[in-house]
Amino acid sequence: MWPFRRRTKQQSGPALPVDPTMGDPAARALSEALARRDWRAARDVLVTVTDPDHQAFCLHAAGRVPGVQEWIGEWADAEPRATLPLLVRGTHAVHWAWEARGGASSSLTSQEQFREFRKRLTLAENLLDEVAARDPDDTTARAFLVMSARGRQVDREEAARRFADVVARHPWHRLAHVQMLQYRCAKWFGSDEEMFEFARSAAAKAPAASGLAHLVAAAHLEMWLKLPAGEDDAHLRDPEVLAELRAAADHSVRHPEHGRYPGWPQPHNNFAMCFAVGGDHAAAAERFQALGDLVTDLPWSYFGDPGSAFTRWRRTVTDSQG
């Protein structure tokens, strides 16, 4: 999330819209309720979402709704014994904090931005810690604490503890794994070796239905983003890299047990870009066909406007298939 570097290429044709809810009805209903400032409707949606991955996805998708922090305290005041309003406010505050920081590198981020970033993250973590303390079975607050670990610059032991708290309760938690992969990237607090070790280990251990083998694609996209022009595309075209990507796809998006869980378009978009840029247009075409028009912000925003980039690459892949 919030990449430090974007690549721009000339785009053509109409841009597809990015739907943060990825077509999930519960995530859409929650986002709409929060946009209306209707906490009762938001509560009614969330009480029906009991799956840990689904709850985390809904709250992650709803994090983009603006203005929530201006009124969400009303819910907590109305239901002081409930953890759900604290969870909504805390998870949204993580996104709110990153919004204050912006997506630029540290050298291009002002001290005022950093101060507001830290202030909002502190609020978020205080709320999430309270949810975790009051609800021993919670996974969502704990997963968002893994997300906020990078912003708070917690040490490696603390980041690992936060991640362990999630997977002890839900071993293949999707959001927690994605956020821990980010922590282990070289651009944050890890290295290329740690990033790939984490992605490959998760892919090897996780069931295909979890989709976690897509972390291998995410890791290769991080490497592509890091490399200079020329070396970046060559990395994804490397026969060994393509072989690893195909194997990861076989254990996730191409596996019959993978299915269409909330957030399923994200792994497909990751593989679509890897295969398209890597030159395996037949494999990319399969992902584009599965997606229809369900474009996600990342990884396509690395090229500029995500909807335009998705459309351009889809056309390139389709044309190459005759």
Q: What can you tell me about this protein's structure?
A:
There is one protein chain. The protein has helices spanning 25-35, 39-46, 52-61, 73-78, 84-101, 111-134, 140-152, 156-167, 174-183, 192-205, 214-226, 231-237, 239-250, 265-278, 281-291, 297-300, 306-320. It has 17 helices and no strands. Residues 1-6 have low confidence and may be disordered. It has 322 residues and is an all-alpha fold.
Query: What's the helix-strand series?
Result: HHHHHHHHHHHHHHHHH
Pairing-aware structural class of the strands and helices?
A: mainly alpha
Helical coverage, percent range: 55-70%
Tell me how many strands there are.
Answer: 0
What's the pLDDT, averaged over the residues?
92
Report low-confidence residues grouped into runs of 5 or more.
1-6
CA radius of gyration is 19 Å
Main beta-sheet annotation: none
Strand content: under 5%
Q: What is the count of helical runs?
A: 17
Shape: globular
- First-to-last CA distance: 35 Å
Give the tags:
mainly alpha; 17 helices
List the topology elements.
Elements: H1 25-35, H2 39-46, H3 52-61, H4 73-78, H5 84-101, H6 111-134, H7 140-152, H8 156-167, H9 174-183, H10 192-205, H11 214-226, H12 231-237, H13 239-250, H14 265-278, H15 281-291, H16 297-300, H17 306-320
